[in-house]
């Protein structure tokens, strides 16, 4: 079966494309771009007038909970959530049970993800069992397919171990992806340390818990030629400023931000309770504004979700007992467009770069080319579509979001990933 997308507005900033095309896809390959008049047998056609096509979006920070916690999410439901959210590719985190610290688990998950409409890639553990005591088989993990090395959910706390991880990943030009948290500072913390935490009578988590470890890591990067250090879910003003300075120095330091950190503040915990509990926590307005400025000026390279599914039972516990994290795959595009593009913080082209081009480049994946002869890999958007967040309609197993009932602009209508497509128009 072939696919014909008519009247599509194609925007691909890395190729300097912004124009209207018919796109004929045969066996997953772009056969023709232009006005397609000829008859094509067994073709599925969609009229995309008023819609746009962009290079397929990629989320490099998701938790699919497999193996070990599939009551929250699994590769099947995670991939479905990504597809309906407008993503053609994702990278999963290794803090599973057991952790992804050996090539066998990578191969097992690859088999589970085979033939999904969303391309599911994996990161792998920096240390054995994510215990921070012994460096994992980094060479074997990378050869098995790991795109990045991380103990996500836990920091690489030891100076000597972090140095060794940076050195060993540098040999393969792979990034070390750091969950930036000084555990001795955050221990027992529930949310950001502020007037809100004092009002609720819970232990707060200070900004120093994030930026202190970044200060150390940047010094290690400075003394480790060829290393690439990537900061996950950046949340504090001090951290953004450290990244800005490191980039100015020419260091290979990159960072990502999540929609909840550039939209909400810690006051959201008062309204949304455990659905506004995440790690790192929602911070103050000053922190949020600096994250926004970092997105505006290019300090922050990537927008991702930290999609972290939990069951309703888990999230219904008291604030100090409920787990950290929210789902994000099915709201990220609308949130980013509504709160960054529509407000003039970044352009649509910059959104495409941060959600498609940059994550693939950082992870060493091939660029998406929207040109004849290239594999089809698209996200289809309706920029003018206003829609309401209804968690009950999510395709994730979990519904833990603070954005329920929010009205957003820009609706993902579908994806095309080589021979597979999912289009809802």
Would you write up a description of this structure?
The protein contains 14 helices and 17 strands. Helix content is 31%, strand content 23%. The protein has 2 domains: 2-53 and 371-423, Urease, subunit C, domain 1; 57-363, TIM Barrel. Helix 4 (159-170) crosses helix 7 (208-222) and helix 8 packs parallel to helix 11 (285-297). With 425 residues, it is α/β, with parallel strands linked by helices.
- The named CATH superfamily of the largest domain: Metal-dependent hydrolases
Summed over residues and divided by their number, the pLDDT gives a mean of 97
Overall number of domains: 2
- Sheet-strand content, in percent, reads 15-25%
Shape: globular
CATH topology of the largest domain: TIM Barrel
Query: Approximately how much helix is present in the residues?
Result: 25-40%
CATH class of the largest domain: Alpha Beta
Cα distance spanning the termini: 19 Å
Total helical elements: 14
Q: What is the CATH architecture descriptor of the largest domain? A: Alpha-Beta Barrel
Low-confidence stretches: none
The radius of gyration is 21 Å
SSE topology sketch:
Blueprint: E1 2-12, E2 17-26, E3 29-34, E4 43-47, E5 52-55, E6 57-62, H1 75-85, E7 87-92, H2 103-113, E8 119-122, H3 138-144, H4 159-170, E9 176-178, H5 183-186, E10 191-192, H6 195-200, E11 204-205, H7 208-222, E12 229-231, H8 237-249, E13 253-257, H9 259-263, H10 268-272, H11 285-297, E14 302-303, H12 312-315, H13 332-341, H14 348-363, E15 377-388, E16 407-417, E17 420-423
Parallel strand pairs: 1-4, 1-5, 6-7, 7-8, 9-12, 10-11, 12-13, 13-14
Antiparallel strand pairs: 1-2, 2-3, 5-15, 15-16, 16-17
Helix pairs in contact: 2-3, 4-7, 7-8, 8-11
